[in-house]
């Protein structure tokens, strides 16, 4: 199995906290569960992997192995190296090893758009758009269009059992329903990596089961690498 993420001599310190990970490789399509006591640094690790501001390592590197288009800069998972770029359809995807925290702020912000992240209660939705419109927007960003986009959106909405809410505005959904739409929006973008920071921590057991099942099926179907706590 080829690697997608490599952690080298990582150290991240706060006033009363120190996270150390000497070495770690996460393979393509692998699902890695992050376990530990409260305050052990699980969320910090996920935030460092995402490249979020204020989480720059004090020491070490986070490397991503990806396929990158030399023509338009589009980033894909390693399995697509050598194939035509799906974004510009001009260049072929070339293997690149990217030092996430060695990038400029602008480059890092662009790169992390290809890294999905899902929190407990952060509902990044278009509140005045319907469930279908929210999912369609994410699919269009991933390159889908027309009838193919509509069918894929319906499939994703059915996967999280929200077909009865497909024409409802996002602002009218419950917290659990919003979390399901957030999930399928992230899956729709076909990220290179999916980071999940307690995505079901505030959900009722039934909704949590739906989200967990959709996460497992979604990343397995697309071969997406996932880190989850």
What is the gyration radius calculated from CA atoms? 18 Å
Question: Percent helix among the residues?
Answer: 25-40%
Low-pLDDT regions: none
**How many strands appear in the DSSP assignment?**
9
Element-level helix/strand string: EEEHEEEHEHHHEHE
Q: Distance between the terminal alpha carbons, to the nearest Å?
A: 22 Å
Indicate the structural class.
Answer: alpha/beta
Number of domains: 2
Beta-strand percentage range: 15-25%
**Major sheet:** 5 strands, antiparallel
Number of H/I helices: 6
Mean pLDDT: 93
Description:
By secondary structure, the chain is an alpha/beta fold. The chain has 2 domains: 3-113, no CATH class; 131-228, Rossmann fold (3-Layer(aba) Sandwich). It has 6 helices and 9 strands. It has helices at residues 42-50, 105-112, 131-141, 146-159, 175-188, 205-222, and strands at residues 3-14, 17-27, 31-33, 59-68, 75-76, 94-99, 115-118, 193-196, 225-228. Strands 1, 2, 4, 5 and 6 form a 5-stranded antiparallel β-sheet that branches. Strands 3-9-8-7 form a 4-stranded parallel β-sheet, with helices on both faces. Helix 3 runs parallel beside helix 5. The mean pLDDT is 93. One of its GO terms (biological process) is organic phosphonate catabolic process. Residues 5-228 form the ABC transporter domain. GO terms for molecular function: ATP binding; ATP hydrolysis activity.
Task: Outline the fold blueprint.
Blueprint: E1 3-14, E2 17-27, E3 31-33, H1 42-50, E4 59-68, E5 75-76, E6 94-99, H2 105-112, E7 115-118, H3 131-141, H4 146-159, H5 175-188, E8 193-196, H6 205-222, E9 225-228
Parallel strand pairs: 3-9, 7-8, 8-9
Antiparallel strand pairs: 1-2, 1-4, 4-5, 4-6
Helix pairs in contact: 3-4, 3-5, 5-6
């Amino acid at each position: 199995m080829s690697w997608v993420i490599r952690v080298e001599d990582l150290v991240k310190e706060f006033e009363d906290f120190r996270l150390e990970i000497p070495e770690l490789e996460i393979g393509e399509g692998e699902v890695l569960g992050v376990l530990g006591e409260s305050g052990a640094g699980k969320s910090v690790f996920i935030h460092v992997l995402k490249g979020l501001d204020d989480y720059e390592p004090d020491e070490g590197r986070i490397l991503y192995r990806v396929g990158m288009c030399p023509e338009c800069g589009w980033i894909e998972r390693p399995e697509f190296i050598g194939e035509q770029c799906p974004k510009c359809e001009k260049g072929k995807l070339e293997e690149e090893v990217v030092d996430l925290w060695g990038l400029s702020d602008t480059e890092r912000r662009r790169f992390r758009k290809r890294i999905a992240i899902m929190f407990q209660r952060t509902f990044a939705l278009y509140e005045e758009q319907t469930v279908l419109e929210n999912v369609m927007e994410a699919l269009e960003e991933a390159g889908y269009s027309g009838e193919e986009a509509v069918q894929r959106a319906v499939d994703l909405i059915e996967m999280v059992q929200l077909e009865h809410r497909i024409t409802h505005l996002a602002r009218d959904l419950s917290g659990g329903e919003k979390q399901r739409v957030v999930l399928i929006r992230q899956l729709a973008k076909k990220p290179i990596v999916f980071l999940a920071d307690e995505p079901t921590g505030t959900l009722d057991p039934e909704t949590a089961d739906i989200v967990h099942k959709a996460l497992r099926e979604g990343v397995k179907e697309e071969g997406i690498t996932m880190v989850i706590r």
